[in-house]
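[Archive record]
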Amino acid sequence: MLPDPRSADLPADKMPAEEVACRERLKTLGVEFEEHKAESNPDIGCSIPYPIVVKTLGKSIAIGSGTELNCQMAEAAARFAADVIQPAAKAEFGADLKSISQASAFVCRPRHGTRKLSEHAFGNALDIASFTLSDGKKIEVGPTPPEKEGKFLNAVRNAACGPFKTVLGPGADPDHELHFHLDLEPRRHGGTFCQ
């Protein structure tokens, strides 16, 4: 693996103030989560010193089980669900967003076909496979959605570029045909990479 300075991140004796503040913001947003023990794999380089397992992305938006993220990514996902996905679902389908099915959160692995660690290795990425609405309708991410679903998925994908630093989905490459990949990878000059 190529070295990444975040691989050396380990938990301190006391949780840093910015981590505590992030958790307070999550509670204010209505996010349900549990603390999780630190994740670290020195051989590969994966590390999340202060992971959480997210149960909901707000008062009424569930997320698939096992959604382990760092707090900053959890906060970005919760704000995005409330500020973008929920209104887009209401506008396009006249129903509320009930849940998000995630395809991947924390996974200790490199980026496909590279020696660079994936943002998933730091709990800094979330892959979304589908959205379920309050009326039971399921909208799956894929290369050729029906027109109305396509409009909704395009709105979500386009709006993700900015709050997230990397946005990938169908058409970007074969690995992202059936989900949206969203992450907070720090980029030079604060830029974004959206495909």
